[in-house]
Amino acid sequence: MRRGISPVSIALVALMAAAVLQTSAATTYFVGNTTGWEVPPNTSFYSTWASQYTFVVTDTLVFNYVPGQHDVAEVTKTNYDSCNKTSPIILYPSATGVTNVTLNKTGDYYFICTHDGHCTSGQKLAIKVSANGSTASTPASQPPPPPPPSAAPTKIAAAFTAFMSIAVGLLC
User: Fold this and answer.
1) How many CB atoms lie within 10 A of CB 46?
2) Given this model, what pLDDT does residue 165 score?
3) Whole-structure pTM value
4) pLDDT given at position 6
5) Residues of the chain with pLDDT under 70
6) Can you give the pLDDT at residue 21?
7) Helices and strands (DSSP H and E) totals, the chain
8) Which helix (H) or strand (E) covers residue 156, if one does?
């Protein structure tokens, strides 16, 4: 004899759905993609990179660089514009050359490398972080290039498919 769907099964499926949706909402961005965080080939390199994305609260920026040759400092807009490295909001030193910055608030973020001449050569990044993804990631002064292919939708689709498979198995 076949029984109906139990309330426990429904609750379990709802909790799993919430967990999948919660973990798939945040995105990890590798600053500069394969170039990483280094003195760029031109001064607009990082603003062009950032213009391809919309950053939201809970996203993470990953800065990859050669330790000892670069660093990451969060600075004010004034210090970003002038490449003033003397009083950063946060200096992220790293012995490994990997700095992860979780974007935990909405608004503008400004990052520079504090090594001599790096910021003035373009090793700086400005982004805008929104609560829901509706705001452009950089000021409108940079026209966005065509976006590169992204693996993010594929990951979300795979997570959703796995979730649905488990849910169907529990409910049948």
Assistant:
1) 23
2) 53
3) 0.65
4) 58
5) 1-24, 133-172
6) 44
7) 4, 8
8) helix 152-171
Q: Which residue has the tokens 């966005």?
A: 144
Q: Give the pLDDT confidence score for residue 102 in this predicted structure.
A: 96
Q: Residue 135's pLDDT is what?
A: 45
53 within 8 A of 137, measured Cβ to Cβ: yes
Output the CA–CA distances (angstroms, integers) from residue 94 to 10, 13, 63, 133, 161, in the order listed. Answer: 46, 41, 10, 30, 38
φ, ψ of residue 18 in degrees (nearest 5): -65, -40
Among candidate residues 53, 47, 58, the one with its CA nearest the CA of residue 103:
58
Which pLDDT score is estimated for 132?
A: 75
160 exposed, middle or buried (CB, 10 Å; 0-12, 13-18, 19+)? middle
Strands of the sheet containing 107-112, edge to edge, are 55-56, 124-130, 107-112, 72-74, 90-92
At position 19, the amino acid (one-letter code) is A
> What order do you get walking across the sheet with 28-30 strand by strand?
28-30, 60-64, 98-102
Distance CA 67, CA 54 (A): 28
